[in-house]
Hints:
Blueprint: H1 2-15, H2 27-35, E1 37-38, E2 41-45, E3 51-55, H3 79-85, H4 91-94, E4 101-104, E5 108-113, H5 117-122, H6 127-137, E6 144-148, E7 158-164, E8 169-172, H7 176-188, E9 200-204, E10 212-221, E11 224-233
Parallel strand pairs: 5-6, 7-9
Antiparallel strand pairs: 1-2, 2-3, 3-11, 4-5, 6-7, 7-8, 9-10, 10-11
Helix pairs in contact: 3-6
Amino acid sequence: MNEQIARDVVLVRAIETADEKREVLSEDDRMYASRSARGGLLLDLAALSGEAWIDLARLDEAESVLGTAVAAARAAHDPARAAAALSLPPAAVAGTGQPVQVVSCGVPFLFVPLTTRSAVDSAVVNRAGLDEMFRAANTNAHGVFVFSAQPGSDRATVYSRMFAPDMGIVEDPATGIASGPLGCYLVRHKVVKADKAEAILSLQGAKMGRPSHVHIAIGVQGGEVASVRVGGEAVLAGEGTLYI
Length: 244
């Protein structure tokens, strides 16, 4: 049982890793992971393509992201304060015309839209400013996710970075649990049209030299979010056995 838990952690982390080598999980690991439901986290591995998908909408402990629940996510965050927390000028946030907002699929993140990819690359967390903003907003967000919808030479829908200093994470190259809420945000605020909602691509980690391509599929019914899936091609980042 303990070995199962250790393998689950490895497999989930592999799913969130960049797919540059285009490797896939072994057949044994693929079959194992398809049977796993750690904490309600359902893994769907496509045997032929090597793609791995996480169905975030099925997390038992998740804060609902369905229907109008997304609209109820807190949006009372000052863009100027958010910009200061990221060492950026206020226009870098306010110029998007989009809100600074907390959205969750079980783990809440603060989403900060930025006008350009250059602004995303220039973001530097001002720890005191970030803590002050979180306190003022009375939020329990685990990290701040910055992104820009500015088109680039790649096929990414958004260019992104994630910082979680309170969790000891200076920067994360691929954050699957934040990418589902990102998709909800993009659809809810019409950054992505409903007919494109099942083919969202977030390019994360490029600034730190570890580019990750995180695929997001948001199911929309009647103009509302109906399902949330995150996935991509899996790379085995490492494996081991933990004995307790």
